[in-house]
Amino acid sequence: MLRITRQANEHSTLLKFEGALRERWLEEVNAQVELARARGPFLKLDLADVTFVDAAGIALLRGLLDDRAELVSC
Asked: What residues contact 20, with CB distance under 8 A and at least 6 apart?
C-alpha cells in the first residue's frame, strides 16, 4: 500500500509518501506528480515514511531528481 499526501503553497508542492513505493503504484505517483507540476515547477518529495522501494520505484525517483525534484526527508 502507498499513501500520497499533497501539500502546496505559493512556492512549491510537497508530495509525502507513506508505505511501499512499488511498480504497481507508479501510475498513481505519476498522476500526483503531474498535478503537482501543473501548480508550479518546484516539487519536493518526503520519503521519511517509505518502507520499501522496488527497482521501478528507484527508477522513478531518479527520474524525478533528474527533473529537479528535491528530497526533503528520507
From this structure: 1, 2, 50, 51, 52, 53, 54
Average pLDDT over every residue of 19-30: 97
Rounded distance, CA 19 to CA 46, Å? Answer: 12
Do 28 and 22 contact (CB within 8 A), yes or no? no
Q: Cβ-count burial of 34 within 10 angstroms (0-12 exposed, 13-18 middle, 19+ buried)?
A: exposed
3-state secondary structure of 11: coil
Predicted model pTM: 0.91
Secondary structure string (H, E, C) spanning 33-59: HHHHHHHCCCEEEEEEEEEEECHHHHH
The model's pLDDT over 33-73, given as tens digits with 9 standing for 90+, comes to 999 999 888 999 999 999 999 999 999 999 999 999 999 99
